[in-house]
């Protein structure tokens, strides 16, 4: 299943910058960054449970915003990309 | 249908900042900003054709990135939100 993760982390404090780095790192480990704070993660359900738990613990629920979009199995037909940073294939090699 | 729009507009130039404002404005007119550069737009197909055309003309395809995610009719079960900026109901009043 493909899960799209978008986040806004409040970086007005040093702690915020640290949270941002950690949230991004957790997503990068298992998914592809497609835009600044937008990740596409092709995951098994168990992997998602783990990542979600990690993200909810890393973020500050008072200051940060996490949004998860469940695109399911037929995600290819749900996504269109235009412009720079050419699209990639989530099922292809992880580009890090 | 619900279309999720995420964008990265390169603002290194004055023209980039202008493009960013216009892209955001075009999305704000018909949708809800849920995060910094993330909009959820509940639209009729004809409205989407118009918005998409507008966005593709506003953005610079060499420098900016536009991603469209088609969440379909049963979008409610595809979205989860945690943290600040409490979720809103795309079918509710447009909060501007």
TrEMBL record, chains A, B:
<dbReference type="GO" id="GO:0004521">
    <property type="term" value="F:RNA endonuclease activity"/>
</dbReference>
<protein>
    <recommendedName>
        <fullName>CRISPR-associated endoribonuclease Cas2</fullName>
        <ecNumber>3.1.-.-</ecNumber>
    </recommendedName>
</protein>
<dbReference type="GO" id="GO:0016787">
    <property type="term" value="F:hydrolase activity"/>
</dbReference>
<comment type="similarity">
    <text>Belongs to the CRISPR-associated endoribonuclease Cas2 protein family.</text>
</comment>
<keyword id="KW-0460">Magnesium</keyword>
<dbReference type="Pfam" id="PF09827">
    <property type="entry name" value="CRISPR_Cas2"/>
</dbReference>
<dbReference type="GO" id="GO:0046872">
    <property type="term" value="F:metal ion binding"/>
</dbReference>
<keyword id="KW-0051">Antiviral defense</keyword>
<dbReference type="GO" id="GO:0043571">
    <property type="term" value="P:maintenance of CRISPR repeat elements"/>
</dbReference>
<keyword id="KW-0378">Hydrolase</keyword>
<dbReference type="InterPro" id="IPR019199">
    <property type="entry name" value="Virulence_VapD/CRISPR_Cas2"/>
</dbReference>
<keyword id="KW-0479">Metal-binding</keyword>
<dbReference type="GO" id="GO:0051607">
    <property type="term" value="P:defense response to virus"/>
</dbReference>
<keyword id="KW-0255">Endonuclease</keyword>
<feature type="binding site">
    <location>
        <position position="8"/>
    </location>
    <ligand>
        <name>Mg(2+)</name>
    </ligand>
</feature>
<comment type="subunit">
    <text>Homodimer, forms a heterotetramer with a Cas1 homodimer.</text>
</comment>
<comment type="function">
    <text>CRISPR (clustered regularly interspaced short palindromic repeat), is an adaptive immune system that provides protection against mobile genetic elements (viruses, transposable elements and conjugative plasmids). CRISPR clusters contain sequences complementary to antecedent mobile elements and target invading nucleic acids. CRISPR clusters are transcribed and processed into CRISPR RNA (crRNA). Functions as a ssRNA-specific endoribonuclease. Involved in the integration of spacer DNA into the CRISPR cassette.</text>
</comment>
<keyword id="KW-0540">Nuclease</keyword>
<dbReference type="InterPro" id="IPR021127">
    <property type="entry name" value="CRISPR_associated_Cas2"/>
</dbReference>
